[in-house]
Amino acid sequence: MTVPPAPIEEAAGLFTLDPGKSHLNNGSFGTVPVPVQRRHAELRAEMEADTVVFFRGLTDRIAAARAEVAAFLDADPAGLAFTANVTEGVAVALASLPLGIRDEILITDHCYGAVQLAVRRRAEACGAKVGVAEVARGGMWTGDDAVQAILDAVTPRTRVAVFDHVTSATARLMPVHRLVTELRARGVTTVVDGAHVPGMLPVSLNGIGADFWTGNLHKWGFAPRSTGVLAVSPEWRARVRPLIVSWFAEEGFPVAIESQGTRDHTGWLAAPYGLRLIGELGAGRIRRHNAELAEYGQRLLAEATGLAAWPGDPELAMRVVRLPQGMARTFEAALALAVRVTEELGCHVAIRPWQGAGLVRLSAQIYNRPDEYQRFATGFAGILRNWV
Ligand SMILES: Cc1ncc(COP(=O)(O)O)c(C=O)c1O
Fold first, then answer.
1. % of the chain beyond a pLDDT of 90
2. With a 6 A CB cut-off, is 195 part of the ligand 1 pocket?
3. How far out from the chain centre does Cα 114 lie?
4. Which of 47, 76, 213, 273 has its CA 20 to 30 A from that of 138?
């Protein structure tokens, strides 16, 4: 049994999570620390105190927040736009691509469900085909396998490839820089879904060089929800159009994307405070803690239940355990099991169907403690013993 990491003491008191539950699913929606909640509330109060003045000064303040986020992601500030989330980032990227009936959009078998729907909708609208690269065709996979599977699936018609930076259900890291380089050499435009990356992994968007890269600050970046980003390479910026046309639609990237009538921008303005908190606590320290705790939790669960621990990537704050074949094999069954885990054990975990069986995904964030994983592992072993 590995020893769990020492807790990050400063995390105590930073969150408002219900202490009666074990929150082992940071990956789904993130958690906003108290100082960021406070800053967000102050911004809202400022907006309500003098709405006209608040909106008048908004453009410069959004630009300043964007610049700070760009520095955190090592991205070109002129190539980064705030979005509500990755769902919007992917939709904007797909809408900007000139695609027709002779073209193919390549996704992978790991593609997040909502992103897959967006790809299929876009393909339907323009008559393009959707190809699926079977990254998991041989079961477990390495980064080399992922690159090979994706490149093998490229056809002369492939115009664009959409793939994850960190996969959702299986919690694996893709070799994105290699993929972007290889796909570019084949004339394929890249759209990278980095939903889980900001705050979980050190990242250089300049170094990755994707045509489009989109991520969430609200999952692991301690930002309020509805805080995503879309980074666009210089070649594509002039082609990117807002999905909803509003004032500034002719301004060009990034302002055109961010402008949408009267909407609440306070989350974007508060986002840098989440990133600063990561800096204050120590980004490397948080990452090490979370990755080690996730691995510890996975090991406890595998040992308590006899289930298979899926190979994880050492840098990630999420780990997966595979359920017996047939268990939680549909979305409905997986959700029903997750609800049962909440109701009977007081624990939140992500459970997703994956190739005929369910996967339990454990997250670790600085508010988690080793005993929470112990409690879940013991309780879940009981559920499995009584499973009918
Ligand atoms: C890999 C991946 N892509 C996209 C999303 C969608 O993120 P959002 O709902 O914030 O748009 C998620 C959310 O969990 C995800 O895990």
1. 94
2. yes
3. 12
4. 213
**Ligand 1 centre distance from Cα of residue 28 (Å):** 8
Among the listed residues 220, 222, 200, 380, the one whose alpha carbon sits nearest the alpha carbon of residue 303: 380
Q: Around Cβ 105, how many Cβ atoms within 10 Å? A: 25
How many A from CA of 345 to the centre of ligand 1? 26
Give buried/exposed letters for 301-330 (b at 16+ CB in 10 A, else e).
Answer: bbebbebebbebbeebbbbbbbbeeebbbe
pLDDT digits (tens, 9 = 90+) for 87-136: 999 999 999 999 999 999 999 999 999 999 999 999 999 999 999 999 99
Q: What is the pLDDT of residues 39-59, one digit of tens each?
A: 999 999 999 999 999 999 999
* Token pair of 145 as six digits: 């396998």
Q: Does domain 35-278 have CATH number 3.40.30.10?
A: no
| Ligand 1 neighbour 112 (Cβ under 6 A) | yes
Contact 96, 211 (CB under 8 A): no
Q: Which of the four pLDDT bands, split at 50, 70 and 90, describes residue 388?
A: low
Q: What pLDDT, on the 0 to 100 scale, is given for residue 350? A: 98
85 lines ligand 1 (CB under 6 A): yes
Residue 87 Cβ < 6 Å to ligand 1: yes
Residue 114 in contact with ligand 1 by CB distance below 6 A: yes
Q: Where are the domains of the chain?
A: 9-31+282-385, 35-278
**Is there an atom of ligand 1 within 6 Å of 83 CB?**
no
CB of 65 sitting under 6 A from ligand 1: no
Kindly state if the Cβ of 230 falls inside 6 Å of ligand 1.
no
Q: Which atom of ligand 1 is found nearest the CA of 167?
A: 1
Q: Name the CATH superfamily housing domain 9-31+282-385.
A: Aspartate Aminotransferase, domain 1 (3.90.1150.10)
Which atom of ligand 1 is the closest one to the Cα of 218?
Answer: 10
Q: What DSSP letter does each residue of 187-229 carry, written as one string? A: T-EEEEEETT-BTTB---HHHH--SEEEEESTTTS-PPSS-EE
